[in-house]
Structures are given as structure tokens and as C-alpha cells.
Amino acid sequence: MAGSAVQVAVVRTGSANLASVLAGLRRAGADPFLTQDPADIEASDRVMLPGVGAFGAAMDELDARGLSAPLAERARAGRPLMAICLGLQLLFESSDETPGVAGLGVVPGHVRRFPEGLIIPQLGWNRVRPLEGSRLLEDGYAYYANSYRVEAMPEGYTGAMTDHGGPFVGALERGSLLACQFHPELSGAWGQALLTRWLESN
Q: Is-catalytic flag, 61?
């Protein structure tokens, strides 16, 4: 694909396994680059928001770099954006993990900690069940590493559900926004195919 690879701006949040993300995108035929420049969020054809770690620390990093507003504007405008793991949670209004810290507020709702009595974090493979209307997601198994989750699909979105002590949002879709609670870059051939479909989607 030399000369025709899709460029993807990968946001450096300071809390992500960026090597795996970059490698996954390259395997899917993309030309990814790391950025903390708000201008790249606005100008790039495709943007990825990965993240692991704490909700509050990641939001502090995005706010300090001036990235929060362009990310939110891009998502609301329906321009291609993929969020992974903590990246999905940052799209919401708030989280149990860091009370009082506002998320990007693109998606209505609150991120909650898994209830007591479960193995936390959920670490390993779990089934992803697409909902009606999903364009990119297929039934399969993905790799998760999360202690917090969104309990119900927000109104106006489709995506996929997963179960760990009850159903929760495994991924959500609306237009060109795809947000995955799981790690597609660590999910074998199934995850690699999802990255490829996102790169090729309109």
C-alpha cells in the first residue's frame, strides 16, 4: 500500500499502550503517527483516541494540551474517530473513577465501576454481540482490560454488548464514530479485521 496508506492521527494521552496500537494500525495498512497537536485532530482524515489508566489523569492531559475541544467537536461533527478502552469512557460526561472530573461530554451518560463480587479488572477475552444497525462490528471475541463500564447503550447509538456480571456496552457506533471498550489491537484476527473495516469505512 506504499503511497496510498491511510494516515491516522493517534492521540498521545500519556496513558496508552501506543506501541500495540501503532502496530495494529500498520498491520491493517494504515500510516499512523502520534500527536498532541490540536491542529492534527482538526486536519487529519482519521483520528484514534486510545487510552489505559485513570479517567481523571487522561482528561487532565487532554485539557492541558488543548485536545479536548477539537476531539469533542470532531466526534459531534461525525468525522472518523475511533476510541479504545479508556478512550470510550472519556467520550462520556463523567466516571465513578474520578468524581467531579468532566469527560468530553460527547455521549450522554456516566461510566460506573463493576459491582463488588466480580473479578476486577475484567482481564481477558469476552464475547462481543453486535446490535441491530451496527455497520462495523461483527460477532466474536475481543480482549478486555477494564474495571469500569457503561451499563446501557445511549439513545441514538448502536454498537455491541458484552457480559461481565450483567450486560454492558462493549462498543458503540454512530456515523463515523466507533468506540470500543475492548482492545481491537490485541484481539487477534477478529480485532485486526475490525481495524481494517474502520479504516475503509465512509
A: no
Based on DSSP, count helices (H) and strands (E) in the chain, helices before strands: 6, 12
Note every long-range contact of 166-175, with CB atoms under 8 Å and residues 24 or more positions apart, other chains counting: 166/115, 169/88, 170/126, 170/128, 170/129, 170/142, 171/88, 171/128, 171/137, 172/88, 172/107, 173/133, 173/134, 173/135, 173/136, 173/137, 174/78, 175/78
Match 500495540 to its residue by C-alpha cell.
20
Catalytic residue among 61, 97, 173, 185: 185
Cell numbers for 99: 468524581
Domains (range + CATH), the chain: 6-200 (3.40.50.880)
Condensed to tens digits (0 to 9), the pLDDT of residues 17-59 reads 799 999 999 999 999 999 999 999 999 999 999 988 899 999 9
Q: Which of 61, 164, 183, 200 is catalytic?
A: 183
Active site residue 73: no
Is 164 part of the annotated catalytic residue set?
Answer: no
pLDDT at 15 over 90: no
The answer, yes or no, to whether residue 13 has pLDDT greater than 70, is: yes
